From TrEMBL, chain A:
The keyword Hydrolase does not apply. Pfam families: adh_short_C2 (PF13561). The keyword Oxidoreductase applies. Belongs to the short-chain dehydrogenases/reductases (SDR) family. GO terms for molecular function: oxidoreductase activity. Keywords: Oxidoreductase. This is NAD(P)-dependent dehydrogenase, short-chain alcohol dehydrogenase family.
Automatic annotation (TrEMBL), chain B:
This is SnoaL-like domain-containing protein. It comes from the Bacteria.
Amino acid sequence: MGLYAITGASGGIGGKAAEMIRAAGHTVINIDIKDADINANLATPEGRKKAIEELRAMASEGLDAMICVAGVSAMCGKPKLIISVNYFGTVELVEGVYDLLRKKHGCVVVTASNTISQGAARMDIVDLLNNTSDEKRILSLLEGKDPAAYSHAMYVSSKYALSRWMRRSSPGYAAEGVRINAIAPGNVATPMTADLTPHAWEACLALPIPTLYHQKKLMDPEDISKGIVFLASDMASGVNGIILFVDGGTDALLNSEKVY
Amino acid sequence: MIREVIKTIKDGDYKGLAALFSVRSNYSDFMPNTIGRNDYHIYGRKSIEMFFQNKLFFHEMVITNVEYESETSANYLAVYNGENLHAQMRIENIDNKGKIKRLVVRPTAGEFAKYVNPID
């Protein structure tokens, strides 16, 4: 059976995906900040290096999939952390184990967000992320910036840049037998969303989820995990370079004219 | 009827607005295209409700200076993404229960026309 590496599988969406993949008879290596097979802080270059080295040791014969779910939301209020984990924590990890994926014609699934279509990305930051990949310089731009003003924009920018990196990489990866795709979740119920203020809750519901019409709730993490497991499976053998929105239709509601 | 539509939008009452539409209905808004964005084409009462829940909560559809032209049309100043635009809203189709089947918002030359010298 297969060998799958998942970042952020200690709980939530990653944890559910790991459960489903194990239930199908595969082995999962969990990479997370704690309580994982590989404990590593993906926010730092040293943490990423540790994760890559340990994963290479555990998967020397190759990997069937590298699934990157680990990330931080805008609610953490730390713009630099958001950029480091969400963008560099994913890109460096995937590129660090690319040759393991080639060995087994494995695949990659990265986690974007349905916010990428809502217009809040800072395209100057996105361009710097994609075209320079200079983490130190980019983070220096955020020094001293008001977290309240920048966290959401940096979250969306990190996910936008990640999506574009995925699309740019996809033809070359696939030509060497490695499919790569992204999942773009909508608003998901998490322990954090259980503690929202009434106004924040109304703001969440003001991004309506058509499949949950009038139910006043957010998406189940399992809905997102199913999308990840599909993209990482043979059922998606012809799928490469796409961003799969798993948001109950929110993007189609607000951006119906963006067909392509 | 157009007065009810405008009132619900100004009150932020997305449920009241949706209730004015028939189940199978359409809202088309060609204003965003004038500022380089995609138009809105929303099909169905429930979609219209959800769409306006989003737009009205985040104040992305602000209407001021309304002039009523008839029972089914009005022109006003609208704010789209921070830009002030002159728009005309028309109820183009009503079903046999008096519910809106098609509501359309289009750009209008409106007051600008009076400053253009007539060609004689």
